[in-house]
Amino acid sequence: EYESSIVARDEQGVDFSAKMRDVIQSYIAKNYDILFLHSSVDTLKIALEETAAAKKPIPILFGTSDTKIVEKGLVKSFQSSENNATGLINDQTEATSKKLDFLKQIIPNGKKIGVLGHGFLIPGEGPGLPTLASTINEAPKFGFEVVEFKTTLPPPKLAEEVKRITDAVKPGEYDAWIHMPGHFYADQQVHELAMTKRVKIP
Prior knowledge:
Blueprint: H1 16-29, E1 35-38, H2 41-53, E2 60-64, E3 85-89, H3 96-106, E4 112-116, H4 128-138, E5 145-149, H5 158-168, E6 176-177, H6 188-199
Parallel strand pairs: 1-2, 2-3, 4-5, 4-6
């Protein structure tokens, strides 16, 4: 038996932390055997706090791209968390060069890459901005120019903005598109994928 929940950061009028805390508390009350978190480190922090407060050390299995969980005090070390959490860390910035090299092999004559960047990505934590920075820095080594779309719109308006930008992309305008992780709008990749299929680019 399992139960899953999605809490979107871009939902109008929703306090993400408060909503996530409610979800975790409901799972604890239902005496689940494991909590699986595929989310940001603030969700892991909430789960650790709530299981400790309830005096129920339910095992927490997490997946994150934040490599600073030791510095943030969420686990004691990478060798042993010394709490009820364990999981996997995916440092996406380490894979940037490999991704660009693979892309160059697919499109050897490619020059221009599109990305949704600042304003679309959650600041202050997670993989979004570091991955964007490493992509912009590494791209010229492979002969690519990164065209970054930015916005100052609030998160609840981003769904409309993502759709506007991706719908406006024309065939031949970009040679490839790179999806950045750690974005506000939960379904951003759905629009990006539909666009790349429409204009026939990787």
